[in-house]
C-alpha cells in the first residue's frame, strides 16, 4: 500500500490538507501530523480539529507534532513512503525546512524526506511574500522540495469553492503521481 505523510501547519488553507486526506485515506496509508498552529487555524476555518479528524479517518495514523520518536522521523522508515506533503505550509515551517532547524516532527520529517530524496511538496500560503520567504523557497527548491503555491486557476471555470480546492489538491496529486478526477485537465483552446 502506498504511504504518504500529510502535515497540516498553521497557514490559512487547512481545507487543502483535509481534502487531500479525504482522497488519500480511501486507498493509501496516511500518517498525519497537525502542528499546534495548524490545529488553531483548522478550528477557525473548518470548525474541526485533529480529534475530529481521528474520528473521521480511523484508518489514518496520527502523530503528535512533539513526538520526535515517531517511526516516520527515521529515514529507514520514511524511505518506504511515496511523498511528504505539507498542506498548507506556513512561512514558519518553510523557514525551518529551509534552515534544517527541527522544532517539531513536521520539520524533522521534511528534513528526512529531503535527505532521502523523497518527494516533498510544500503548499505555501502567504500574501505578499517577503524577501525572506522567497529566499527560503529557493533554498528548499535547491534542496529538492517542490514549492507549490496554494493558487487555484480559473481556466477550468470553477463553480464552487470545492472546485477551486479540488484543482489545487489535484495539481499536488499530479506532482506525486496519485491518479485522480479532481479537476478537468486543460484540453486546449476553445470549448466546443
Ligand atoms: C487565522 C490564522 C491564519 C494564518 N495564516 C497564515 C498564512 O496564511 N501563512 C502563514 O505563513 N502563516 C499564517 N498564520 C501564522 C502561523 O499560524 C504562525 O506563523 C505559526 O507560528 C505557524 O506555526 P507552524 O508552522 O508550526 O504551524 C496564520 C495564523 C492564524 C491564527
Automatic annotation (TrEMBL):
Keywords of the record: Flavoprotein, FMN, Prenyltransferase, Transferase
Entry's EC annotation: 2.5.1.129
Residues that coordinate or bind FMN: 10-12, 35, 90-93, 125
Ranges for domain Flavoprotein: 5-175
Cited InterPro entries: Flavin_trans-like, Flavoprotein, UbiX-like
One term of GO molecular function: carboxy-lyase activity
Entries under Pfam families matching the protein: Flavoprotein (PF02441)
Binding, dimethylallyl phosphate: 155, 171
Catalytic activity from the UniProt record: dimethylallyl phosphate + FMNH2 = prenylated FMNH2 + phosphate
Coiled coil: none
Keyword check for Zinc: no
Domain of life: Bacteria
Known role: Flavin prenyltransferase that catalyzes the synthesis of the prenylated FMN cofactor (prenyl-FMN) for 4-hydroxy-3-polyprenylbenzoic acid decarboxylase UbiD. The prenyltransferase is metal-independent and links a dimethylallyl moiety from dimethylallyl monophosphate (DMAP) to the flavin N5 and C6 atoms of FMN.
Family: Belongs to the UbiX/PAD1 family.
Name of the protein described by the UniProt record: Flavin prenyltransferase UbiX
Organism, scientific name: Aquifex aeolicus
